[in-house]
Recover the amino acids of this structure.
């Protein structure tokens, strides 16, 4: 565990304030959920992911789908949960990808643009990013991308189906 040097007082309602710089660094947004853990005499706060309980479901989905050379990725609001490319698992999603998800609309790009979907992974690629919205909260997304092939209506339909399926499993 890394010390931050920040000390905060608990107010009379039992609240503490997480400093803005720490929230920005950890990408903790207003209204986001945190899990609380206790380990001996420590209280640990961890960003909550709706996918914690269904990680096995995500892994089975990803291993069952064949997109002929395209990569399928399921992300929460911060990182890759499951992917057909095992090297991407647990990679943080890029600020660009976060902003696409926050728009809450499906984005399809077939211009083979150079973009960064995941931190430190910059490629020319075609992609579909489909946000997962559960109970009006953005909880993640389904992404299909390829460096060589264009994404098409079939890929879009797969994304839409997976989003609906994952929402049913999250709720």
């Amino acid at each position: 565990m890394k010390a931050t040097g920040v000390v905060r007082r608990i107010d009379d309602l039992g609240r503490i304030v997480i400093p803005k710089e720490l929230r920005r660094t950890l990408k903790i947004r207003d209204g986001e959920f945190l899990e609380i853990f206790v380990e001996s005499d420590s209280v640990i706060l961890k960003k909550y992911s709706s996918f914690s309980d269904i990680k096995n479901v995500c892994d089975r989905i990803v291993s069952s789908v064949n997109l002929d050379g395209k990569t399928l990725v399921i992300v929460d609001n911060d990182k890759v949960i499951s992917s057909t490319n095992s090297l991407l698992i647990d990679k943080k999603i890029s600020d660009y990808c976060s902003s696409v998800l926050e728009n809450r609309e499906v984005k399809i790009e077939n211009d083979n643009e150079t973009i960064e979907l995941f931190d430190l992974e910059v490629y020319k690629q075609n992609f579909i990013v489909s946000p997962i919205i559960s109970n009006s909260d953005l909880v993640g997304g389904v992404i299909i991308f390829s460096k060589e092939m264009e994404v098409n209506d079939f890929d879009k339909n797969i994304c839409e189906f997976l989003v609906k399926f994952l929402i049913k499993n999250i709720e």
